[in-house]
Design a protein that fits this description.
7-stranded mixed β-sheet; 11 strands; 46% helix; globular; binds nicotinamide-adenine-dinucleotide
């Protein structure tokens, strides 16, 4: 049942294996990439409690020994403090340049561990074993690694491609429904940005996927990885097209900053809200029909994902303050905000040509509905 997506980046090419039971096969799949039979695994406390022993057993089948560092779960782990702890731990484990570091967890662990591997001894190889839906469909692929800074999200980091990605779809079964649905926000993003047939499919199969249907989960992870790989192969370091993957993210990053990067709004939930706002803005600019944002909202709402600013608990800053937070985004070029807008479902494009007033009015209207 294992499926493979190849990321054809010439001298940095790698495979993404997707399917159930991959932790048990991890030893056999990782062994060809190892110079010596030992790995250092970085994970978080939730994933460690549920799956670390399965990984240890899977590696042992191929005679691979494993040391592990278990970090606290949550976005605040993607920080200078835990980067230092991870790098110092890897040095204490005497990780050499030819060794492999394993990132075993959600996007937080993947981003942090990948960055630690990028800076350790000026670059050590690493493997991604993503365990959250968000990490399997998005963050484990494409080589963006990094941490947050007090100045903003993901502002410190490096491009560092993994040597291999193992997406074991069985482990999704232990996710909380809220975390799983947050990851679904990123899955929907792919349909919205470039594949309307995939969005149609999600409208039909999304509920089965959420309930645990394995073939639906594999198909969604595979299609998402294919789309991400295709875009990353065209534009690895985001000089152009890769920005399409940021559909919904300019809004999302401002909302995450406004809500403190925590439980009030998970990253994938922010992406879902951001996609709905991006489509609403596109409709207001006359780029797509008014039915498109309605359809986007309807599907996200049917799945139980956050959709509107009204779905975010607690106070939010006013429209002007949210706009200022958007100005912190990495997508700002020469001081101008860049947006990913759409001419319809599956037809996103990048533009800097959005009047600030339009964005402020949209946010003010959405805030007024709270
Ligand atoms: N590098 C990229 O290209 C990229 C892309 C998208 C998002 N991201 C980053 O990813 C992060 C969000 O990722 P995330 O949503 O995976 O967050 P996360 O790593 O915090 O995981 C979410 C929660 O799920 C738990 N978890 C993970 N796997 C589990 C499992 N199998 N069973 C039970 N619990 C499990 C984690 O412990 C955590 O509590 C953000 O920091 C975001 O910026 C990076």
């Amino acid at each position: 049942m294992m499926e493979t997506v190849h990321v054809g980046l010439v001298d940095r090419a790698y495979d993404i294996h997707i399917g159930p039971g991959l932790l048990a096969q991890s030893g056999a799949l990782i062994a060809p990439h190892l110079a010596r039979k030992q790995v250092c695994v970085v994970t978080d406390e939730n994933v460690a409690a549920l799956h670390l022993e399965t990984l240890r057993a899977g590696l042992a089948v191929a005679g691979i020994a494993m040391e592990s560092l278990v970090l606290p779960a949550g976005e605040s782990t993607k920080s200078w403090r835990f980067l230092e702890q991870t790098v110092e731990w890897l040095l204490a484990q005497k990780v050499e340049r030819r060794d492999l570091v394993v990132a075993f967890g959600g996007g937080v662990i993947g981003d942090l561990t990948g960055f630690a591997a990028a800076v350790l001894r000026r670059g050590v190889s690493f493997v991604q074993i993503p365990t959250s839906l968000l990490a399997q469909v998005d963050s484990s692929v494409g080589g963006k690694t990094g941490i947050n800074s007090p100045a903003g999200k993901n502002l410190v980091g490096a491009f560092h491609q993994p040597k291999l990605v193992l997406a074991d779809t069985d482990v999704l079964g232990t996710m909380t429904s809220r975390d799983l649905l947050a990851g679904y926000g990123e899955v929907v993003k792919y349909g919205l940005l470039g594949d309307s047939a995939f969005f149609d499919w999600l409208e039909a199969q999304g509920p089965a996927l959420a309930k645990g249907d394995m073939s639906a989960r594999i198909a969604a992870v595979r299609r998402s990885c294919e789309m991400k790989a295709e875009i990353v192969m065209r534009d690895e370091t985001e000089q152009g097209d890769r920005a399409l993957l940021n559909l919904g993210h300019t809004f999302c990053h401002a909302l995450e900053a406004a809500t403190g990067y925590g439980d009030r709004l998970l990253h994938g939930e922010g992406v879902a809200v951001g996609c709905a706002l991006a489509f609403e803005l596109s409709a207001r600019l006359g780029l797509c029909s008014q039915e498109d944002p309605s359809r986007v909202r309807q599907h996200l709402r049917a799945m139980g994902v956050k959709v509107d600013l009204a779905d975010i608990d607690g106070d939010l800053p006013d429209a002007e303050a949210l706009l200022d937070l958007m100005g912190q985004d990495k997508k700002v070029v020469d001081g101008q905000l860049r947006f990913i807008l759409a001419r319809g479902i599956g037809q996103a494009f990048v533009t800097a040509d959005v009047p600030r007033d339009m964005v402020r009015d949209l946010l003010a209207d959405e805030l007024a509905r709270r």
